[in-house]
């Protein structure tokens, strides 16, 4: 059946197509953007409202065992965001760790159509995929954890980049993963022995490889496999005062880019930009980090902004969560994933009365304001670690309005300004910057423009968000409340050519896709028949190799991006 939509009088910003704000029409047919809408199409009059490609979240925690355990841990959180059944909308609950439908509907009403789950443990991939299927309105991708993978670390120790690449290729295809995620590389494995790694040159116990060696080898492996995304890294020493040195040293590991895409993506960099030596003298080192970023086009970061209020923190970085638990003494969970990785979870409250929290809040904003190129600094909260993603509109408003930042300054700990440069920054981001930081930049960094994501040129996937904001008459510097409200609730969210949300209500059952990658390797590099790999697998894992791969039934609508490895 031919389905068409014609959006008229749209104020379009489509950075990947070079459109920086033009009144134009957008035509949709059969889920794709086309030159001309078919006869009988539904007509939507956008009336000069801001119209963007569907939002893309390139780092969020919404699905999988860790997320689900976060739900168990905080029944009070589950009570917070309850909505009853309405039309096609299922019951939802939860604020910082909502149900999958809660996540999906909230993203939809904010105009988001694609979400990358930040950390999937390969052994527990089925759970992630089951929850992807129950996140109906967003296409999903899974960052796949390799930070403490024993086979990978052995290949790193042998300096065998090709073998590391082969292990990655086999694993991503087996678990239907999208990209390489390294979380505190080596540190989570060390935590299995009650330790952590102190810096990027500190060897992992029993493996005698360093985080720097793991990172560099995996960057090379990633490029050999020609994966769409780069290595996606959560640096060592997250949340440790003085950790900016580790972050700078890590950025120096990124080799120059061969093509248009970065060679290293650093996530939630706010948590990695601290000066000082203890929590008492923690300070912002955003200027040092931004200076390095501005000189390295091969690096892309996301903000990891924190916002004040209650949330749940969750990460594969087990030792970090333990350190955080020792500060808060609230609830704590820790989990080891055999031969691969681990995780930790604690609920937190970020307070305007806490100087440390105020410094953290300032740093995230500073990174975005100091990064000269918006394509290199993407908007995120590391949902829900820095804040639930429903806070994005407030972050956008803060970035677009110095006046709003000044108003917030009056509410926070007055000592903050001695430790951060935020209030000396005049910059106010514009609509184009925001469009880059919330969709176009993500699509480019993830390498998914090739499947029509993140832009509105003919042939692109018809994922479109129309916001009740009129850039031609609205001054975001002054009318920041309106900016916040407008980005919270689209007039229309269109997913693959169907209106899925209108005026804050979800109007159809969804049917999302899961995007995964398969790098083709020569038979000699097929780990499924490699004697050493299979012997070790059978010896150490509690599951058999044949039971490990995720069956197709878990991905009812899988989209595979295939590459040809240069092996
Ligand atoms: Zn994360």
Task: Tell me about this structure.
- The chain is an alpha/beta fold and 567 residues long.
- It has two domains: 4-53 and 450-506, Urease, subunit C, domain 1, CATH 2.30.40.10; 56-76 and 113-449, Alpha-Beta Barrel (TIM Barrel).
- It is 30% helix and 22% strand.
- The protein is built from 17 helices and 24 strands.
- Strands 6, 7, 8, 9, 10, 11, 14, 18, 23 and 24 form a ten-stranded parallel sheet that branches. Strands 1, 2, 3, 4, 5, 19, 20, 21 and 22 form a nine-stranded mixed sheet that branches. Strands 15-17-16 form a three-stranded antiparallel sheet, with helices on both faces.
- Strand 12 (274-275) and strand 13 (283-284) form a beta hairpin.
- Helix 6 crosses helix 8 (211-224), helix 9 runs parallel beside helix 10 and helix 13 (392-400) packs across helix 14.
- It is globular and about 65 Å long.
- The model has no long low-confidence stretch (mean pLDDT 95).
- The site of zinc ion has 9 residues, from strand 7.
């Amino acid at each position: 059946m031919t389905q068409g939509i014609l959006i008229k009088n749209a104020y379009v910003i489509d950075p990947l197509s070079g459109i920086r704000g033009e009144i134009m029409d957008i035509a949709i047919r059969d889920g794709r953007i086309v030159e001309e809408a078919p006869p009988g199409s539904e007509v939507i009059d956008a009336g000069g409202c801001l119209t963007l490609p569907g939002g893309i979240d390139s780092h969020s925690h919404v699905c999988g065992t860790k997320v689900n355990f976060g739900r168990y841990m905080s029944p009070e959180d589950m009570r917070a965001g309850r909505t009853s059944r309405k039309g096609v909308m299922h019951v939802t609950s939860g604020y910082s760790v909502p149900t999958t439908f809660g996540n999906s509907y909230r993203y939809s009403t904010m105009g988001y159509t694609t979400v990358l789950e930040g950390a999937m443990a390969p052994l527990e991939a089925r759970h992630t995929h089951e929850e992807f299927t129950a996140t109906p309105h967003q296409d999903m991708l899974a960052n796949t954890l390799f930070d403490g993978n024993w086979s990978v670390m052995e290949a790193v120790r042998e300096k065998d980049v090709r073998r590391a690449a082969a292990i990655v290729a086999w694993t991503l295809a087996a678990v239907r993963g999208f990209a390489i995620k390294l979380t505190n590389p080596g540190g989570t494995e060390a935590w299995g022995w009650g330790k952590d790694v102190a810096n990027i040159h500190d060897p992992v116990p029993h493996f005698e490889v360093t985080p720097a060696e793991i990172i560099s080898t995996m960057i090379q492996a990633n490029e050999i496999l020609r994966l769409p995304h780069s290595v996606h890294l959560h640096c060592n020493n997250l949340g440790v005062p003085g950790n900016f040195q580790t972050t700078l040293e890590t950025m120096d590991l990124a080799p120059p880019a061969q093509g248009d895409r970065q060679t290293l993506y650093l996530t939630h960099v706010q948590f990695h930009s601290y000066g000082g030596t203890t929590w008492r003298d923690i300070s912002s080192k955003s200027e040092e980090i931004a200076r390095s970023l501005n000189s390295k086009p091969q690096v892309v970061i996301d903000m990891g902004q924190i916002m004040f209020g209650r949330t749940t923190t969750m990460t594969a970085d087990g030792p970090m969560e333990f350190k955080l638990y020792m500060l808060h003494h609230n609830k704590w969970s820790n989990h080891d994933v055999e031969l691969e990785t681990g995780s930790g979870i604690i609920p937190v409250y970020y307070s305007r009365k806490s100087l440390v929290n105020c410094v953290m809040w300032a740093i995230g904003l500073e990174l975005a304001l100091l990064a000269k190129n918006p394509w290199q600094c993407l908007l995120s909260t590391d949902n829900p670690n820095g804040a639930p993603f429903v806070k994005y509109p407030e972050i956008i408003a803060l970035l677009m309005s110095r006046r709003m930042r000044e108003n917030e300054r009056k509410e926070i700990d007055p000592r903050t300004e001695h430790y951060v440069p935020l209030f000396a920054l005049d910059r106010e981001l514009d609509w184009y910057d925001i469009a880059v930081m919330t969709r176009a930049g993500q699509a480019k960094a993830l390498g998914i423009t090739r499947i029509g994501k993140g832009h509105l040129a003919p042939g692109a996937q018809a994922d479109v968000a129309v916001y009740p904001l009129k850039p031609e008459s609205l001054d975001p510097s002054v009318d920041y409340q309106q900016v916040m409200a407008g980005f919270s609730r689209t007039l229309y969210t269109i997913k693959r050519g169907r209106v899925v949300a209108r005026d804050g209500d979800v109007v159809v059952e969804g049917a999302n896709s899961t995007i995964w990658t398969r790098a083709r390797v020569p038979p000699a590099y097929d780990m499924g028949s490699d004697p050493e790999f299979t012997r070790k697998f059978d010896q150490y894992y509690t599951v058999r190799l044949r039971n490990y791969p995720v069956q197709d039934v878990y991905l009812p609508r899988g989209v595979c991006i295939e590459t040809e490895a240069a092996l």
